[in-house]
Amino acid sequence: MIVMLTITPAFAQGGGGDARTMAIAARKLSLQGQLAEAVALYQKALDQDPKLFDAQYGIGLALDLEGKYAQARPHLKEAIALASPGAEELALEAMGVSHAFQSDAAGAAPYYERLFNDQQKAGNLAGAAATANALGRVYLESGDPARARTWYQRGYDTAMKQGDMPARERTLWRMRLDHAKGRIAARAGDAAAAQHYVASVATIAHAPGFADQLADYEYLVGYVALYTGHPAEAIPALKQANQKDAFVLSLLAQAYERTGSTAAARQIWRQVLTLNSHDIQNAFARPLARRALKP
To answer: Considering the entire predicted model, what is its pTM?
Structure first.
């Protein structure tokens, strides 16, 4: 439901064959959760070719997932500098996500804003709208609901500039905006407003042809219940949301914690740490899981 760019394996750019081969192997290790091994292999690739985009980009992602953010960012900065036009979007978003791992919206914003502006200039309004929503989410989960509302609205307004958008997609963008407004209201403690937007999203998600949105509706129901002081009600809803989404799992773990179900919460936190995507969902979930499971 919340549209965002997806981090995919980087494009091979430059470098000797051996260095590229090592970078590809390191990427596989990182996706499997073997982060230390991935970092070591990326470093070997960089020793051979420090200008290899794939290695600079990949090691930055792996270091973030290890929680080594200060070490990750010089590599991501270099990846931005080395990136071809096709790969630059990946590198800019990765740097924004890197800052999200520390709930640093101010640090993330310049990279998302640059990406948003570039996409607008290129006529990629759908991509720009998704980027605006991504920045809105970073602001919301970093504790700045006012800026979150601004960027979510900007995402919707940008999407609406697409003159040839099908009616279903227009409805989905309205749903995305209402979903965001519901979460913003919940974080502000305005239960009545939050429930208003839950009802709006429910109307769309339960309409014919929108069954694929039910999991995101349940995510909103759980989010609102959790942040308006009803964690027990959040649990069944969040169990119906996407169980491969690290952020959804983090909400579920917190709901278990608030109801005193410590063992169930720890099980979910361990599940979070098996997910090795470098995205906003994991950026806000993984640090919480690491702290919760710290001996």
So the answer is: 0.92
